[in-house]
Structure formats: structure tokens, C-alpha cells
Write a structure and sequence with these properties.
Number of helices: 12
Helix content: 40-55%
Order of helices and strands: EEHEHEHEHHEEEHHHEEHHEHEEH
Structural class: alpha/beta
Number of strands: 13
Distance between the termini: 8 Å
Largest sheet: 7 strands, parallel
Number of domains: 1
Strand content: 15-25%
Length: about 375
């Protein structure tokens, strides 16, 4: 079982941005020293959620120079917000710089505020995402002698005459990891031999207290498609080894009681930040084209904690994860900096890294 760190901290104002970036760098370097397998980052814009995630490719490139053995991933790139040419170019550059240690999660985005900043209507985001991915595949496949590729997709326009440079390091291109919630997404990942993100809920309910039931369902569907696709054993093994289950908050302490008490401190600060951001999100939802149809539960509810949190003593965390290991989940993605990144929050995040690496990972990596 692999363990990866999800950099998902928040800044509460412009004056905090630089320190947040420096603290995240130090946290990522610590994860590298402690033997974590990958660093993942989201893709967000305009608000306090991971200010450096306005270009996670750039930050990943910076960290890759300092952590040459580390894998890097994105959870996830909001595909409608990226011109397909720049999407492919950035992936190829980072694929080359990391020597193929790259995992690109892809999705259609979740926030109307971010969409309208890039000239995309929220209701059109899925269609624009699907077309962008199709254009990206055509760009990866194009050689100089091929006819030009015309791009006309929402706000994204262009005409590519030659080829994308640089070429990818990985054969074809770096894997694009979807969330294996819909049949089409699960099939796409499986047929290409790519890993996938395995969700712990089934819409329209975004949360609940039985996450394993949903993980087992979606993982089983994805794995069956993967095995039916006719790949080599090596391709199947690699895909499964990076198939990822995500926890927005992972917090480990010496005792269960300490972990729960500290978790509630983290979640109260996180929820306050989310509510602040939601004020701006509501301004974006000013018409039917930019109105969300789903809502995430309050982070202090049992449903949110049950789906998105992993916490407790090392022994409790190990026992929680063993069924997921037995199921075949290859990678646990750990949100260790969730919420505003104060000095105390960073201390708690580093505490979690230390206990995961010294006590949890040795028990589950063998």
C-alpha cells in the first residue's frame, strides 16, 4: 500500500500567501524524507483554497527539482479551465522533468466562481471537459505531417499546425486519472491501463458513515474493467498500485482521544474557511447557468467525518485501513494540511507525517 500527501491548505488573506507556500514546501520536503510515495495538489483559483494551486504544475516542477525520487499527482485538474494546448504542454514538460513519475487526475470542476473567471458556464463544464480531453488526445497523437487540429471549444480556440513540444516521456502520455464514479470514467481509465480515484460516496449524497461500502462497489467495477481490457500483468499491477482512495483530513495522534480532540479543532477552522469562501461562490451562482445542484455537508457532521476523515492512534488507523488494503486499494491520499495553515496546523500536520511514517506505513507496506 502506497501513502501520498495531499497539499490542500488554505490562506485567509494575501498577507498569508507567501508563508503558506514556504510552509507547504517544508511539509513536502519532510514527506520526502519520511518515505511517502507522492505529493498531490489540487487545481483552484481566486479563493483561499491552496493559492499556489492556481498553477500546480509550476509548484510541482519546483518541488520535483528538490525531490527527484518523488511521484507527483493532481487531485484534480479542472479540465474546462485549461486551454487544451497548454494542458498537454504542461503535462509533457512535467512528465519529462519527473522521468514519468506523474499522475494527472482530471475532472470537470466543482465551483461556479472558478468557472466564470475563465469564461466557462458551470452548466457547460462537463461538455467542455469531455471535448478538451478528446482534443488533448488528438494533440498527443499528432505528428508534424498530420493535418492541422482545429480547436473551438467554449472559450478555447486555436489551430495547431505542427506538434506539441516537448514530446511526452511516458509512452502515449502521462496517465490521466478520473474519478471512477461513472461507468464511462471507469472504463476509460481501465481501457487505457490508468489508475483511478475511487470515491467513498454515491451521489446525490456527498457523505455518509459507510464509506467502505461505496469504495468496494466502485473499486470492483473499475477492477473488473481493468482485468477485462487485456493488459499485461505489469500494466494491471501498476494501475492498481496507484488506484487511489482519498481522505481530505488525515490526523494521527498517540491516542484516539487526542486525535479526535485535535481533529475537531482542525475541522472548526476548516469549516469557517469554507463558509467564508461560500459567500463568494453564492455571488457566482447568479443565474441558472452557474448554479450548483449538490451541496457538501458541514465538516463537523458525522456524514462528512465518516466519508472524508481518517483519524485516531496509529493502531486505530492501521485497523481502519486493513480492509482497504485487502480490497486492493493501492494508494492512500492523505490530506495533512487541511484548513488554514497556521503554525499550530502545520505542527499537527507534521505530527501526522511522523506517526504515519514511523508506525502506520511499516505495518501496511509489507
Amino acid at each position: 500500500m502506497r501513502f501520498s500527501v495531499f497539499l490542500n491548505a488554505r490562506s485567509m488573506g494575501a498577507a498569508e500567501d507567501r508563508k503558506l507556500m514556504q510552509d507547504l514546501e517544508a511539509h513536502a520536503l519532510k514527506a520526502g524524507e519520511l518515505g511517502f510515495d507522492a505529493i498531490f495538489m489540487p487545481d483552484h483559483h481566486f479563493n483561499g483554497y491552496m493559492p499556489v494551486a492556481s498553477d500546480s504544475f509550476m509548484f510541482a516542477s519546483y518541488l520535483a527539482a528538490k525531490l527527484p525520487e518523488m511521484h507527483f499527482g493532481f487531485s484534480v485538474v479542472s479540465v474546462p479551465l485549461h486551454h487544451p494546448v497548454r494542458f498537454v504542454e504542461r503535462i509533457n514538460i512535467l512528465d519529462q522533468l519527473t522521468g514519468g513519475k506523474l499522475l494527472v487526475g482530471v475532472g470537470s470542476g466543482t465551483t461556479p466562481e472558478e468557472m466564470i473567471g475563465f469564461g466557462v458556464n458551470y452548466q457547460d463544464s462537463k461538455d467542455i471537459s469531455d471535448r478538451n480531453l478528446a482534443i488533448a488526445e488528438a494533440l498527443w497523437a499528432k505528428v508534424m505531417e498530420d493535418p492541422a487540429i482545429e480547436i473551438d471549444n467554449g472559450p478555447h480556440k486555436g489551430r495547431v499546425l505542427q506538434r506539441i513540444a516537448p514530446a511526452p516521456y511516458t509512452a502515449g502520455h502521462a496517465p490521466l486519472m478520473p474519478v471512477a464514479m461513472k461507468e464511462a470514467s471507469a472504463r476509460r481509465a481501465a481501457e487505457n491501463g490508468w489508475p483511478a480515484f475511487i470515491p467513498a460516496f454515491t451521489p446525490p449524497q456527498i457523505g455518509g458513515t459507510e464509506p467502505y461500502r461505496h469504495v468496494a462497489k466502485f473499486f470492483g467495477i473499475y477492477k473488473n474493467y481493468l482485468l477485462e481490457a487485456g493488459h499485461s500483468e505489469e500494466v494491471v499491477a501498476r494501475a492498481l498500485s496507484w488506484t487511489t482512495h482519498t481522505y481530505q483530513v488525515v490526523h494521527v495522534a498517540e491516542t484516539d482521544e487526542q486525535a479526535r480532540e485535535e481533529l475537531e479543532v482542525i475541522l472548526r477552522a476548516y469549516q469557517a474557511a469554507v463558509e467564508r469562501e461560500n459567500e463568494f461562490n453564492r455571488r457566482a451562482e447568479s443565474d441558472s447557468a452557474n448554479t450548483k445542484t449538490d451541496r457538501t455537508p458541514n465538516a463537523l457532521t458525522d456524514d462528512w467525518i465518516g466519508t472524508w476523515c481518517l483519524y485516531g492512534s496509529p493502531d486505530t488507523v492501521i485497523e481502519h485501513l486493513k480492509p482497504y488494503q485487502d480490497l486492493g486499494i493501492g494508494n492512500i491520499l492523505c490530506g495533512t494540511t487541511t484548513g488554514p495553515l497556521t503554525d499550530e496546523r502545520l505542527r499537527l500536520g507534521n505530527q501526522t507525517l511522523n506517526l504515519l511514517s514511523s508506525k502506520v506505513m511499516p505495518a501496511l507496506k509489507n
